[in-house]
């Protein structure tokens, strides 16, 4: 961030180095969806003239800080990124971390079987950085256009107002990439014991960019120093008898007594290439990067040490967006990340208001200056240079001006036909799922099968048969155990044709090995 008070920034406090052009594929090519600077600018302008979250409604949060080690593995962090928040040692960057469940309403039980949101706002010296992910390191779908369908299928039936298993599996049966997440979430890993004893992950693939403009692909992970603890269905049911908010209470009480939870931030790094040699697409957020090939490299430590002073003003009004990045961290072409970048911030403008970034919990702690004006619930007039009459750019009359460009900018070469594409690497939809099933301890596998059997018994026969077909192609024992437990005809399931519109799954499932690295659940 420049010390010049006349430097134009975004509402997040990021310097604006080009206020004249959209980000596009070539000079005459289409604009890209991750035009965050443009999206922030135009969507605020759209609202200049003048609700409970749809997902992640049930949540709790805490303040804390992040301190970088200054290294990534055995290398200086500056080799990979120029982001000061990751390269400077001895600096404690303030953070606000919100935990949540995904599907349930605001007062739903925290014992629900559901992924847990893990959203961090870093108040860096160069503007805010939001990292919005979950605890399971994968997601159900790999293309953002399917997100509304997925949430509709997982939410309560619009007629009965109940979450119906058949709706969930009706969606899943048509999306084999969801099998990996289903196997995670229907095991004990789907019910973390509390928020302090669970992992966090970016899920999506990002890029780290150094000061020479060289990029690498990366994923972020947070490993709890307290260890990992999960619950079986029976343990969760027992807790829910007495407390529907046990995880929020546990986090609050721990911080109040000085038992401050801590996570180690790690990154996995991969060359910024297509990686045709891998059986999966590294941009596919339904897949994990094998840790024997792409190890978790420590980057820094994150500590939570202060509870919110007002839950509504902070926890409920906190607004996160995957497009909120700092220099040195950039987007990949992960289709879910691209879609989330538009959706998340636009949702906050609708839910909290056009000026949600003026709220103290969302505002950057570094200086910022924009030409944005007015809109619903404006709290202040953004400073706009030395001449308050000038709220536009460029100007020769003392208005804001663009920040200087860096000496070396990251530029990605892109060429190709504009169209709609699906991943061709679909064998890993079954390979990684089967490998995860084989990696479970016996008690984890037993709990997984019991949960799936109960669900299958609530589904129509056609859904039962197709789901067993999927499970069997992930691992023969997986499909056999579900079929036998639920009383489903295994041979009829195996005889089903390939799923229409999808390539045949790879039959050679026995050779895949799971490299997720987690066997610590209790």
From TrEMBL:
Q: Where is the composition biased (Polar residues)?
A: 7-23, 383-398
Span list, region Disordered: 1-27, 382-405, 495-522
Name the keywords, alphabetized. Answer: Heme, Hydrogen peroxide, Iron, Metal-binding, Oxidoreductase, Peroxidase
Q: PROSITE patterns given for it?
A: CATALASE_2 (PS00438), CATALASE_3 (PS51402)
Q: Which cofactor does it need?
A: heme
Enzyme kind, highest EC tier: oxidoreductase
The residues covered by the Catalase core domain are 9-401
SMART domains xrefs: Catalase
Identify the EC number(s): 1.11.1.6
Please name the InterPro entries in this protein's record. Catalase (IPR018028), Catalase_AS (IPR024708), Catalase_clade1/3 (IPR024711), Catalase_core (IPR011614), Catalase_immune_responsive (IPR010582), Catalase_sf (IPR020835)
Extract the Pfam families matched here. Catalase, Catalase-rel
| Similarity annotation | Belongs to the catalase family.
Which protein is depicted? Catalase
- Lineage summary: Bacteria, Pseudomonadati, Pseudomonadota, Gammaproteobacteria, Pseudomonadales
């Amino acid at each position: 961030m420049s010390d010049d008070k006349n430097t134009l920034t975004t509402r997040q406090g990021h310097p604006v180095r080009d206020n004249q052009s959209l980000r596009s594929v070539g000079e005459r090519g289409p604009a890209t969806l991750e035009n965050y600077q443009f999206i922030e600018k135009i969507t605020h302008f759209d609202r200049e003239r003048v609700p409970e979250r749809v997902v992640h409604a049930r949540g709790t949060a805490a303040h804390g800080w992040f301190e970088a080690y200054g290294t990534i593995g055995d290398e200086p962090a500056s080799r990979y990124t120029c982001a000061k928040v990751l390269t400077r040692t001895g600096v404690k960057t303030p953070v606000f971390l919100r935990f949540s469940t995904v599907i349930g309403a605001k007062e739903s039980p925290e014992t629900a079987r559901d992924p847990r949101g893990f959203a961090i706002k870093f108040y860096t010296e160069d503007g805010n950085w939001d990292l919005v992910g979950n605890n399971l390191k994968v997601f159900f779908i790999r293309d953002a256009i399917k997100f509304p369908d997925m949430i509709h299928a997982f939410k309560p039936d619009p007629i009965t107002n109940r979450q119906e298993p058949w709706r969930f599996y009706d969606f899943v049966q048509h999306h084999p990439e969801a099998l990996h997440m289903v196997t995670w979430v229907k095991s004990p890993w789907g019910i973390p014991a509390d928020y302090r004893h669970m992992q966090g992950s970016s899920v999506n693939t990002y890029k780290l960019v150094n000061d020479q403009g060289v990029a690498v692909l990366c994923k972020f992970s947070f490993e709890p120093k307290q260890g990992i603890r999960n619950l079986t269905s029976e343990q969760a049911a027992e807790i829910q008898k007495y407390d529907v908010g046990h995880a929020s209470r546990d986090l609050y009480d721990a911080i109040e007594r000085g038992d401050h939870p801590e996570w180690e931030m790690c990154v996995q790094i991969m060359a910024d290439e297509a990686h045709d040699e891998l059986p999966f697409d590294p941009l596919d957020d339904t897949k994990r990067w094998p840790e024997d090939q792409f190890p978790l490299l420590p980057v820094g430590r994150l500590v939570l040490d202060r509870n919110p002073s007002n839950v509504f003003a902070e926890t409920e009004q906190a607004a996160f967006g995957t497009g909120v990045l700092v220099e040195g961290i950039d987007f990949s072409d992960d289709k879910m990340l691209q879609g989330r970048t538009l959706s998340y911030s636009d949702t906050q403008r609708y839910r909290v208001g056009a000026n949600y970034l003026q709220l103290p919990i969302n505002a950057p702690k570094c200086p910022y200056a924009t030409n944005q004006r007015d809109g619903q619930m404006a709290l202040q007039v953004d400073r706009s240079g030395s001449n308050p009459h000038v709220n536009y750019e460029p100007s020769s009359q003392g208005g804001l001006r663009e920040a200087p460009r860096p000496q070396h900018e990251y530029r990605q070469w892109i060429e190709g036909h504009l169209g709609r594409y699906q991943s061709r690497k679909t064998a890993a939809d079954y390979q990684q799922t089967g490998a995860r099933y084989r990696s479970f301890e016996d008690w984890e596998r037993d709990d997984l099968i019991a949960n799936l059997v109960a669900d299958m018994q609530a589904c129509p026969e056609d859904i039962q048969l197709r789901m067993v077909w999927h499970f069997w192609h992930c691992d023969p024992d997986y499909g056999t155990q579900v079929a036998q437990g639920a009383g489903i005809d295994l041979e009829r399931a195996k005889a089903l044709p390939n799923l229409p519109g999808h390539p045949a799954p790879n039959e050679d499932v026995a050779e895949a090995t799971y490299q997720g690295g987690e066997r610590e659940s209790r």
